[in-house]
Amino acid sequence: MSIDKKLLDQLMEGRSSGDLFGKEGILAELTKALAERALTAEMEEHLGAEREEGVAEGQNHPPNRRNGSSQKTVTTDSGKVILDIPRDRNGTFDPLLIAKYQRRFPEFDRKIVSMYARGMTTREIQGHIEEIYGFEASPSLISVITEAVMDEVTAWQSRPLEPCYPVVFMDAIRVNIRSDGAVSNKAVFVALAIRPDGTRDVLGLWFQANEGAKFWAKVLNDLRHRGVQDILIAVVDGLKGFPQAIEAAFPEAQVQTCIVHLLRHSMSFASYKDRKAVATALKAVYTALDVEAAEAALAEFEESDLAKRYPAIAPSWRRAWNEVIPFLDYPPEVRRLIYTTNAIEALNSKIRRAVRTRGHFPSDEAAAKLIYLALNATSVEWKRSVREWHRVKSQLAIMFEERFPMA
Predict the structure, then answer these.
(1) DSSP state of 403
(2) For 72-90, how does the pLDDT look when each residue is reduced to its tens digit (9 = 90+)?
(3) Helix or strand (DSSP H, E) at 257
(4) CA–CA separation, 344 vs 324, rounded Å?
(5) Where is this region: Disordered (predicted)?
(6) Band of the pLDDT at 165, cuts 50, 70, 90?
(7) Pairing between strand 164-179 and 230-236?
(8) 42, exposed or middle or buried, with CB in 10 Å at 0-12, 13-18, 19+?
(9) Which residues, other chains included, contact 350 with Cβ-Cβ below 8 Å and sequence gap of 6+?
């Protein structure tokens, strides 16, 4: 329903466009007028409902009625507004629009949370609110609003998961967190999963100063406790202790190292002028038709002058060989999906953008809160379905037979 233009002209009479916002702006007046009208309507409905209830129960005492009003200062997304809140004689009226002990409209809280999710610091949020809305929001108010998100984070971190995930990518970002008076650099591990329907989902966040088999056992057991019974393919970037841990938690899962990360590691040993030649030689390994052909290509590289010039490259592939060769059993559609952890790296880049403005976090919980909000703010982008999922799904159903959930 559109607003009558004549009414808008009346409202703007004698005003300029600059009079819309701020403490004395027309939006503040409209917010007050509309809110008080809504509260009046709520009171009328409340009194009417009580009268009907009294008649139905055969009561003969005087009906409840209005009893003046009381003032309350409420923070809205257009500034602070003083509302006249209607009262009733029996004191039973508790408005839905702005509850008895509520001092802020929900939309204001959502704006604060949105700014926080985009990496704005408390000081930046304060300045933005004062500049746009004309009043000061204290650091404690901003903290109270954003701390309310922690209940959501806790519920999200412990929510039930699906029984089977076709592919799970594991990677980490680094954040600075204060503990016992000192700031330490912690890894935040992120698990990005592909659901059976091809959509993506972040399964959780885990904080650890140092990775290892014991830590990974904790992560994987957490997934099991939340309902995960099987993972078909786990794609990782050389995470220390991960293959052993996943073998213990999910014995049938195939651990696949990220080929792109292995290539980058190899390139770090080669001089700039030889990198193209090294990349070409190694491409023959990971694009081989099968394991035997890949083994032959790697053996050929080991005998080459390039391998002798850069003796660290071939051993790095040998050490990771058990996590490389599963890739060679997959058809092209699946190879393209698990070739790299780029999907989770793209997600992590969005998280880094949000945390970059923070020098450090006071706790793991504070970091988890911001990362959770950043994930929600960008969910439309990273939750998109895998391209050509129907083709990948068909191949996985053939390869993993009854383990792959077709429903």
Answers:
(1) G
(2) 877 766 567 777 888 888 8
(3) strand 254-257
(4) 19
(5) 50-79
(6) very high
(7) parallel
(8) middle
(9) 374, 375, 378, 381, 382
